[in-house]
Amino acid sequence: MSDKPKVRIRNLYKIFGTDPASVLDQAKAGLGKTEMLERHGHVLGLKDISIDIGDGEITVIMGLSGSGKSTLIRHLNRLIEPTEGEILVDGIDVTSYGEEELRQLRQMQMSMVFQKFALLPHRTVLENAGMALRVRGESAAAADAAATTWLDRVGLTGFEGHYPHQLSGGMQQRVGIARALTSNAPIMLMDEAFSALDPLIRTDMQGLLLELQQDLHKTIVFITHDLDEALKLADHLVILKDGYVVQQSEPQHILLNPADPYIEDFVSDINRARVLRVRSVMTPLDGRVPADAAGEVGYDDTLESVIAISGGDTAHAYAVLRDGTPVGMLDMKDLVRALVPRAASNGGMLSRAV
């Protein structure tokens, strides 16, 4: 993993309509999505998007329907052309690419997992999984060998000769993930990849993705409208509204420090005890662990697990360990305060309820 972003998006605009350039300056001056449609008959898809996508990390882009998240991910491999802005992959602006360079980008550097699986119905599981290598011109034997390896990793050994219609939705999406991994592209684009699945299967697929990521450290851009899914998967979370970024940061930071009332409402119903980690609530140590510490908890433990250990006793404080080394103290009173959403603590939730 590197501190240098794998992908950098800078000042990206997308306007849909007959003459986007004619209204671009107005978008830059602050004209909103609704006003642009009413006055000019153009749709503001993306507005001044700037995001760093970390190498080897999962960046989750989320928002409600119409927020621009699927439009944004399709700019990365230029399935949609920007109106203005830069998309830098390893420091090179791909908006300047010609046809051949784009083909190389899509075949070698980026793979994509779709919501609707996008498997070829007349091809077997094995052939679908190895399709990226076959398209590149590699031999059937090489493609099959690589595909077999990844089908095994996603739990589909024994299904190589089946066809997509013979598989469940969750199994079909496993084939889609195996296909993306077989391509060996360093960047994976996942557009609502689990949204079509039943809740239990969706949870299994989230767990599979995190398990694979522990070993592979791919640069993953994951699109979702589900906040629980976003908080579970994201190293970096970007929240869109009407085509612009409302807030982006590490998920723990967004939960504890929502930027505005829109984000406060967004996160108000989340089970914070299950999502928040000890590291976000602890007080860093400036010396030795106090002798009266009630015990030890892990740096990345959930607050829910600490509540279970404490039995709900708010008089306790725990030493926080990271890789066996004390790095902080967690006071149960601080933990309880962190469980209360800011809007609720300010009376906002009560006023809305009344």
Keywords:
six-stranded mixed beta sheet; 354 residues; 14 strands; disordered C terminus; alpha/beta
Q: How would you describe what is shown here?
A:
The structure is a single chain. With 354 residues, this protein is of the alpha/beta class. Helices cover 41% and strands 23% of the residues. The chain is built from 18 helices and 14 strands. It has helices spanning 21-28, 33-40, 69-76, 99-109, 125-129, 131-136, 140-153, 169-182, 199-216, 227-233, 251-256, 261-267, 272-275, 278-281, 303-310, 332-338, 342-345, 348-353; strands at residues 5-16, 43-54, 58-62, 84-89, 92-93, 110-113, 187-191, 219-224, 236-241, 244-249, 283-284, 296-298, 317-322, 325-331. The strands form three sheets. A six-stranded mixed sheet has the order 6-7-8-3-9-10, sandwiched between helices. Helix 15 (303-310) links the parallel strand 12 (296-298) and strand 13. Helix 7 crosses helix 8. The longest helix is centred in the middle third of the chain and has 18 residues, at 199-216. It is globular. The N and C termini lie far apart (49 Å). The model is unreliable at 347-354 (pLDDT under 50).
